[in-house]
Amino acid sequence: MKLFNSLNFQNLLFLKLIIYMRNSKNIFLKGKYIIITIILYKMLKRESEHERERGREREHERERELHIKGNARFGNKIIQISNAIKLGLQTGCKKITVNGKTIYLPKYNKTTKKFSFITEMNKNSRNYFYINKIKKIYPDYDESTIDQQEVRNILLKYCFDTYKFIHNTYLCIHVRSGDIFKKKKPHGGYVQPPYDFYKMILELENFKGNPVVLISEDRKNPVINKILENYKNVFWEKNKLKRDQEIIMNSKYLVYGEGTFVPQLLYLSYGRKKVIRFAKGQIVFDKYNNDYRYTNIHLQP
Question: What's the whole-number mean pLDDT along residues 122-128?
């Protein structure tokens, strides 16, 4: 069995079958040779692909490289990268590759001697999103041992290099729309605020009649059209992701509902901000000083 599994033996057998197939005058045997040759070719191809994949895994472990792939949306992607940075700093990894872009990590105090966990982590980028999955793969994971300011600085450099944010100042209302309003199986974890939530804010003395930018990837959420119809000082246009990120990060006042997109941008923002958000049926007032949040009060609508 070991002999049959040998790649050299399979190659030799493959060549012999091709010779037999060409020299055979018996049509029935020739047909059998063709079928066997095709099957063996697929086996060799699959074995070669597996060998290349094992080679990449060994290289990632040798280079101490964490790898994040896929098309996660911005907020979820930032969470994945943030967790990868914490894991990398704690274990002594050298770099993180995010869809082809490399983040180089500084040397940190604590390093591990075995890096086999890297292969398991890299098998699925969703592993970087959930703390319980990280701890299952690397039980010693403890983000309290890491300087959170250093994590933020590394993350900021990646985001500013990637997105080239510029400054802006507006009252900004972010309304979640898009994928959570799909017809089949909408996400139950992202229940959005009702129209009255936004109406309450727009009627406040500070904002009444003043220009307001509404950000949303589309207008599937029905509150968007209602806001635009009733408040002529609210402006919306379909922007590129980078432009929306710039406005949110640099707004002095910010309003948003459930989701990961805005909180991760707030984490990356500088300066003082006042935030009104809708979370689990409550209205929450927050103050941000750089990335540090002070929660003032929770109100039941």
Answer: 89
